[in-house]
Amino acid sequence: VPSSKKISGIIKKATAKLLQNKELIKIAITGSYGKTSTKNIITNILENKYLTLKTPASFNTLLGLSRTINTSLNNSYEVAVFEMGASKVGDIKEMAKFIDPDISIITDIGPQHIETFKSIENVIKTKFELIDQMKENDVAILNGDNEHIKSRIINNVNNIYYYGFNKNSNAFASNIITVNGVTKFDIFYNNQFVTRVETHLLGTHNILNILASFLVFKVLIDKYKFDLKVDEFTKEISNLKQIAHRLSYEKRNNIHVYDDSYNSNIKGFKSSIDVISKIPYKKIIITPGIVDAGSMTKTLNEDISKKIKEVFDDIYIIDSYSGKYIYNALINQDNVHLNKTFTDAYNEVITKYQEEVVLLIENDLPDNYLLRRS
Questions:
Q1: Per-residue pLDDT averaged across 170-181, rounded?
Q2: What angle do CA 52, 56, 60 make, to 5 degrees?
Q3: What is d(CA 289, CA 159) in angstroms, rounded to the nearest whole number?
């Protein structure tokens, strides 16, 4: 662990480098979910035409941002995309003052890391530290479907753009269909049709991440005069690769497998179930429940059990602390099974079904190696 003096030196050096790059367009992203995906989508859209720096996956602290700037930033870069994470109130404020972003995005706010934040109010306060530090001519891009975000009054920024499925948003998605691992939808901007896109990134949460990225795309064109075209945006979205174990799709003999085993939050879980609900085959789920919820483990797993009950024909619960809350909520149903391991559950599924079925593998599964190796 670096000494406080060394950390101070790293941050001071990074501050100086940022000040030298006066033409650099700085984009900051925070939120309970969707930060990394949105960062990656924005970078993919821009990097073919503009030299774009993005922070690595785990470098979302003040020290991590500083190290990225010190090792990677030079005067050739035109755009930098910074992901900002937090474990306590004040973390985002510190990073926002340090980066001084031109465009700031809040992707979502929800009950993630409640153990460290203590309350959802502290989560909201911390995420909005990014917006609170902005100047009036900066740009705020916000998830207008999130109740904690859309209800917040913002007085310090003139340029505020909302995205979501609500047609009152500046950018919204409509006419959504998902078939065999591909989602297609229309993007509207200020109630005008812009383009139809297709993507291998599945789930409503990824549609929201794409909409946030579209608003960045529009702002860069309109405010910063970037030479970008809509068909370039559409092409890059279609080229986005599925991320393994994050609702990635694969056909395995008669089983349509949707592998979301790296997910660990209620939002992503519900989004995955929504995708599966629209597929016209028997529906099966294997899950240990939501395993990273701290004091909200019981509440969130009992909540998700209602949605599981509505959608799935066969339910395989992994015997775990979190899974037992789902199992107990559904224990009176004949289609609910309790298994010791994922491997046991998976083997039951491939033995039982000969017809085409869809299987959702959901949440942090420690032995998901089976799908990687088989």
A1: 93
A2: 110
A3: 40
Poorest-pLDDT segment among 31-40, 59-68, 242-251, 268-277: 242-251
b or e along 222-255 (b: 16 or more beta carbons within 10 Å of the residue's beta carbon)? eeeebebebeebbebbeebebeebbbbbeeeeeb
pTM of the model: 0.81
Q: Which residue has the tokens 């153990």?
A: 115
Q: Tell me, what's the pLDDT at 374?
A: 38
For residue 55, give the amino acid letter.
T
CA pair distance 250, 242, nearest whole angstrom: 10
Interior/surface letters 290-300, b for 16+ CB within 10 angstroms, e for the rest: bbbbeebbeeb
For residues 374 and 363, what is the distance between their CA atoms, to the nearest angstrom?
Answer: 19
In angstroms, the CA 55 to CA 265 distance is: 23
**What are φ and ψ of residue 192, in 5° steps?**
-110, 130
Tell which residue, 302, 306, 357, has the closest CA to residue 326.
302
Length of the chain in terms of residues written: 374
Closest of 334, 354, 336 to residue 345, by C-alpha: 336
* 77-135 pLDDT, tens digit each: 999 999 999 888 999 999 999 999 999 999 999 876 566 667 888 999 999 999 999 99
Query: How would residue 371 be classed by pLDDT, with cut points 50, 70 and 90?
Result: very low
CA dihedral 176→179→182→188, nearest 10 degrees, is -10
In the three-class reduction of DSSP (H, G, I as helix; E, B as strand; rest coil), residue 109 is classed as coil
| Res 55: pLDDT | 95
Question: Rounded to whole angstroms, how far apart are CA atoms 200 and 184?
Answer: 9
CB atoms within 10 A of CB 347: 13
Instruction: Quote the DSSP letter at residue 242.
Output: P
239-253 tens-digit pLDDT? 998 777 778 888 999
CA 18 to chain centre: 27
